[in-house]
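Reopening this ticket.

The earlier resolution said the output was attached, but the attachment link was broken on my side. Pasting everything inline this time so it's all in one place.
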Amino acid sequence: MPSWFTPLAALCALMFATAPILIAQAPYESTMGLVQKIFYVHLPSAWMFLLAAITCGIASLRYLFRGDPRQDRLAWAAAELAVLFGVLTLVTGPLWARKAWGVWWQWDVRLTSSLMGWMVAVAYLLLRRYGGPGSDKLAAGLALFGIVNVPFVYISVNYWRTIHPTTNVVPTLPTSFGVPLWFSAVTFLLLFVLLLRMRVRLEEQRARVDALYLSMDS
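Inline output:
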């Protein structure tokens, strides 16, 4: 692992230990009360979900044009993180929505497109696992659909009526709400970087082992 990995992991652990304190000290939202604090986990998870889809799509595009196996490994790792953070997003969202808006789920544009993006990531992993020869290129093409979906997820609330607020709400949050949110977002970003690097490293080691087996057979 690179030299920066251990200190970054220590910093990430410290920030995860600090985040609940900041979240607990944040004021209650006037209408939703305590349940609004799910926001500090839900929104950073959603951002990492979209970031993972973007990473997977860009790496897949580069793999299709260059055939670089490093980009393929990066795309695979990012797809797994898209599934992970997508689950966090799709679980924390309904928990919050049930108390805030009285529904677990509503088939509005953002929710539906987010679910579709998560299913694309799941389909990518299934294709890589069971698709056989050529599945790497097919999965890469599927990842391009996933990255195209990302801006649609983000801007959908600005053009369709949904239960989500528009994108201009977060930049205008008061400091008492904004500080714990951005602290949580940076914490989740560090976790994303660490997990991505670990997963790519695992794929690198697996590729070396496969190369050794092939050399022994020959």
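Reporter confirms the inline version is readable. The radius of gyration is 19 Å. The chain has a mean pLDDT of 89.
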